[in-house]
Amino acid sequence: MSRTPLTREETTTALAALSGWALSEDHKSIRKDFKFRDFNAAFAFMTRIALLAEKLDHHPEWFNVYNKVEITLTTHSAKGLTALDMRMAQLANEYAG
Ligand SMILES: C[C@H](O)[C@H](O)[C@H]1CNC2=NC(N)=NC(=O)C2=N1
Fold it and tell me: Among 10, 21, 50, 85, which residue's beta carbon has the most beta carbons within 10 A?
């Protein structure tokens, strides 16, 4: 999947289909706060994301406290958003159920 930066228009279009993901002020990342039943559910979700991250060679910035997982996605090499961030966001939504 391409690490080419998305245009503003591509970003807006992609985000419209991604429930709960918000664009940062500098438009270089997207973020969503997930909440689960308990730590076990949160960590199961994180495990699936971790395996996905290795498969895509694309890794999240995240923070976990008990049943909450805050995820920020950006592509460092592109210094902004790419299709990889959108793909990971989409699958995170699916994994969260
Ligand atoms: C060497 C390796 O392919 C790169 O460092 C990958 C790994 N994971 C990555 N993850 C993210 N989020 N952005 C990157 O640019 C990136 N680059």
Answer: 85
